[in-house]
Amino acid sequence: MNLKHLYSHSLKGMGDKLHFAAHSHHLWPDCVADGQNQYVQDAYRLADQKWEAAIKPVENSVKASLADFLCIPNPNQICFASNVHTLFFRLVSCFDLRKPLKILSTDSEFYSFSRQALRLSEYDNISIKELNTIPFVDFKDRFIVEIKENTYDMIYISQVFFNSGLVMDFIDEIILHASPDTMIIIDGYHAFGAIPTDLSKVHDRLFYLAGGYKYLQSGEGVCFMSVPTDSDKYRPLYTGWFAEFNELDDHKRIVNYAPDASRFLGATTDPSGLYRMKSVFDVWEKNNINIRQIHSHVVALQNHFLSKLESQSIFGLTTSDLIHEQEGVKSFGHFLTFRTAIAQQIQQKLSLLGILTDSREDRLRFGFGMYHTIEDVDQLFDRL
């Protein structure tokens, strides 16, 4: 695929830079400006009536698209928030934090979880166990054994780990072996919109978190969560008035919650991200683009990158420095991760050549997106 025409504004803004950080910030397609502007026009035209007359239809459209992508039967199993941290903490607040709380996770979760988890662990009654994802060859076995041998109140794990690109592909086995009372949360932020995801057989047993900043190309402030259909048993302490919006006219001195995913909503938010996300989905539909095609496109780009890397190193880095090669796995997300003590120095050298990547600690990441072509990969190595 050559989809550069959908990204003319972003690519013009990049100038002669090569943006290989799509996993960190996927460049925006031109259509998001139309979405953003439409929100402003609706606000001008409708004022406070915009919520029901304009925003609600946009929200319903986005819910329907997300449910379709995830193979979830009911779009009302989806709710929105400005970021996944808000959604995660709302789930934490479903528990009585005066009582013991046991959480199982990994050492490779994004900071929206890991920082908050570290703070929570300062309380004597909250224990958080983080299993190392490396070595990855036996990670699945170690994680399942931990679930079998111990009971946890919550399991939080990424679908694609942000610091390696390695893929967790055993959701069904987590569900099989976890206690029926365990809350299971999948952080899909580095996977959704990139790797085809089918929750049709597991959606009633887990919470799935993701958002628009990366592969959904919609920018900040628009994240979502899918919830099990029996989630009416949860009463989040961290709540907002939107979680009871339809009952406000009959408000009583009791904290009620909506019967669907809306029970996890907060308070007044900026809905412009929903407009941007809808604009992206509309363009995908118009151009017959789906996530499976996107994934195939990126895999082809990655394979070409790896073939070039066989004969030409990147400031001394070779295929042997790639984490998926070191761990002996073939399944990874839409970014390739090198492990090197000089990751930040190499990132700076690449930047001087107009090649934009990013690094986290000792990991240097190259991300691929819809706006890339084989020629972009060739140009990267030509500059080197």
Automatic annotation (TrEMBL):
Residues 55-380 form the Aminotransferase class V domain. It comes from the Bacteria. Keywords: Aminotransferase, Pyridoxal phosphate, Transferase. InterPro entries: Aminotrans_V_dom, PyrdxlP-dep_Trfase, PyrdxlP-dep_Trfase_major, PyrdxlP-dep_Trfase_small. Gene3D superfamilies: Aspartate Aminotransferase, domain 1, Type I PLP-dependent aspartate aminotransferase-like (Major domain). GO terms for molecular function: transaminase activity. The keyword Transferase applies. This is Aminotransferase class V-fold PLP-dependent enzyme. It comes from Reichenbachiella agarivorans.
